[in-house]
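Protein Entry — a single chain follows
Next Lines — sequence and tokenised fold
***
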Amino acid sequence: MTHSELVEIGHKYMVKNCSVGFAFKELKSICDEIPDVIGFGSWNHSVLFECKVSRSDFLCDKNKGFRLEPKLGMGKQRFYICPEGLINKEELPQGWGLIWVNEITKKAKCIHSPYRGNIEERELGFIERNKNAEMNLLYSALRRLHLRGRLNEIYESPL
């Protein structure tokens, strides 16, 4: 399974299952962190998926500055998404969830989530996070629409 395949599967899973109104795939902005998939919902809700296709990539990930200092990272809720069995629940950093993808069916399944519960779902997660980075990412996306002359579309009635 390639990283690009995992990003696509993660994006579809997030939009369908994570209470987000929209999600971005590998959107670059002025931030150090480039989320593989990040989604946003109402009431200050954000979800980050970090896609890993190899053990070495997963092991190197914990040395990134925004992993060493969780308050520098994006996503109120954070998950690793990987092929089945690549990462185990016991290896997760504090507060992270885990999603496995079956390499044959390409179906994603949540193996571990510290965010369970309908009412409290948006209250749980990383209280301290890099909201400035999240806002910069959203600004970057809106700026791209503006530069392409499509910003007026936000004033149209939703479908």
Strands lie at 22-25, 37-41, 45-51, 77-83, 96-101, 108-112.
